[in-house]
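P.,

For your records, the input lines for the assembly:
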Amino acid sequence: MSKQDTTGSKKNTGWRLFWQSVIARSYPRIIGQQRDMSWMLFEVIMPLGSVIAYVLVYRALKAPEVYVGFVVIGGAMTAFWMNVLWSMSTQLYWEKEQGNLALYIMAPNSMMSILLGMAMGGMVATILRAVVIVLLGSLMFGVQYVVVSPFEMFAIFAISMVALYGMGMMFASAFLLFGREAWAISDMIQEPVNLISGLYFPIKSLPFWIAAAASVIPLTLGLDAMRQLAFPSGFKLGFLSTRVEMLILAGLSVIFLVGAKLLLDYTEKLAIREGRVTEARR
Amino acid sequence: MDNSTSAVSRSEAWRSFKYAAWLGWQITSNWTDPFLFAIYSIIRPISRAAILVVMYGVITQGNFTNPLFPYIYLGNAFYTYVFTVMNGVSWAVIDDREHYKTLKYMYIAPIRIPYYLLGRGVAGFLTASLSVVITILAGILFLHVSFDPLQANWLLFFVSLFIGVIMLSMMGLVLAAVSLLVVRHASFMAEGVSGVLFLFSGAIYPLEVLPKWLQPVGFAIPITYWLELMRRSLIGNVAQAFPTLARFSNMELLGILVGLSFLFGVISIFVFRHCDRLARERGLIDRTTNY
Amino acid sequence: MPPYAIETETLGRIYKIRGIKKERAIRRELVALADVNLKIEQGELFGLLGPNGAGKTTLIKILTTLLAPTSGMARVAGFDVTGSPHLIRPCINMVSGGESSGYGLLTVRENLWMFSQFYGVPSKEAYNRIDELLKRVGIFDRRHTKSSDLSTGLRQKMNIVRGFMTDPQVLFLDEPTLGLDVGASREVRGLIREWLDENKSRTLLLTTHYMVEADELCDRVAIINEGRVLACDTPSVLKQHLQRDVLFEIDTTPLNGLSLAKLETQPGVRKVTCQEVDGGATLNFILKEEAALAVVINTLTAASVNIMKLSKHEPTLEDVFVELVGRSMTDMERSRINE
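Structure tokens returned:
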């Protein structure tokens, strides 16, 4: 929808403004990645090292080959988790330091469009990282995939992403209030989430209640379901059935997206009340 | 250089290092209250170690008496130093340049920048030490990692640790030099590099697991020897259960470590000087590259 | 159409200050704004004048919905800043002096286009406006330069364009000429006046501590100090209150211990301020009548202070400030630094 304001200018509003902002905020990321290609080395090639290391641990332990495939898929999904945590949620803290956060809040668009734009802009690097890990990891270690239902696989992946990015937006709202502790808290939760999401092992290995609690993190069930669909013996090591996991992920998507909107609005009001929008609490 | 000039130079170097260490600690330690800092210091290393423990437990059905387990566990624990020390030195460039915007002021002050950066890595060393101690204690108390403090070779431990930290700091200096020239996703550089070194250093599996054509890489990096020495100093006989470096005595390993560390040290000095000069030529010292 | 573009009623803002770790038990409150009542009409160029720390930026932050007031009410474009910020934001924009916002890797044009999109300005129109404004501030030739390669002054010009390009109903400029040279400041002041004259529905609130800027540009000026509005009227009316007084500026040799208090107690002297300069002092007198000058000269002579130069001048807003506060803005800022 467009509206004409009292100065006579036509401006977009509503969903048009939302998508306009998403595209605009993704632009610096996309252009930045083209203007300095060093990210390919640091964010795509090098992370492969950790993935290979965990594969070799399984090889040293003489684990069944399906575990190698688990590590490869887990390593690929790490890319999205890192994008959510570092390139979206924590990013608001750096925007505040630079003085951009005040401009974003003052603008008539929504903070969710800004966050989504950041995430979309980083998608090129993220997807490339995930694809490189899957392709190279599979080639190097001879991982054999048997995907019975590619449609279901894609659906699981898509719904996991929606839920994961919704969760990231909820984190971002918390970071509106934090100062330097934003970075440290992201650093603190990274490893525990890596652990309880089962990035490198089947989540079924953990006690039931830990696995159930971990299911709140979309990465956990998304990974578990994709592994079940990608490998013939995957379902033996699955936590819940893929249908149940997809339903839970759908529910989490709704909860996180609605929660993100409410929390972003609430924390924005709180930050404005307490004067934290423009403070640089370095 | 006469005596007075070299005395001033040494004093400058020490002053740069000392105050940078103080600053690094201030930045690292006071972002929250002590309780949350303690939680942070415990959760991170325990979670990292737990990933490997679960992987190991799943495959071996919980057979923690196999000597491979302490090999993996301790290697992973000490590897914390690799990322944290390297990151502590190199991250200072990103932090000062992009966030605090003070790098330019450090450059124009009468301090020695390499020593300044090394000083900033001290806080990383201290937090890594805390993480390592917590991880090892957890292993001893809950995971039956066999460790007898009376049997440990403490002299070897501290000497190896000292040499290793210097070696890692010099590697961090190389990353810091590169950070001067690239944009802020160099913040992931230390993680990426330590991930690659994780692969080749025999931290969590013996080098024999690598393809034969890649094993020479592992033998060329000082971290491999350093980790072996750290394991041997604490759990001697178990560490020697693996053939990779069994043919080397402790002194021989120390000698190789010192030699390779010296070589990497020389490389780091040249790389830093070169990158520093390029950064000044291109006017990169005070730019911000966040997007 | 709302009656006022900006309206505040007993507006106040108090900050709670926490001390460093050792003094955590001590909590002080800082009154940044107190009892501010303003009514700014549509089409007005309103100035907010005061020293550093007076509360100007705090007021702007409240009016631009970045900070909530702790008491009172504020309305912009007819909407309440606390209750309806989402209705205010499409109508406003803000530029601060000394800004470092934007992304260094993007060019000037790209940075500006990006921000225009957050306001829903269609791309084609955004580019047209950006190009036009860049020409007006004189950096059109740098439109394809990465903003990290710009000097501070040029970057500030880019930020000024960012404020104007969304064509806001109400524009807030917080010390916009900070960091700009004399020529550039003049260009910006010209742009401000032209922009307002083009469309009478536009309103502009400008904060500054440059008297000349406020005097030259503003339809009305509010003088603010320590969070309170001390006076609010057109510059000429404000200065007229001092017209009944006589203003003299006297350059002297060093004062040799002669105190300002002694000078102020002389008959006919209303106020005196002193600025020490190399090898002497500059005294500014507000006298009740011209005859009091003789008394002043005698007092100076008796203290062996030689007069190097003497001039009578028309009251400026600085004089108005001195009259209201008792000290010059420079004195206030200096004493704040020394605290």
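Two observations worth noting. Chain C has a mean pLDDT of 88. Chain C has twelve helices and 14 strands.

Regards
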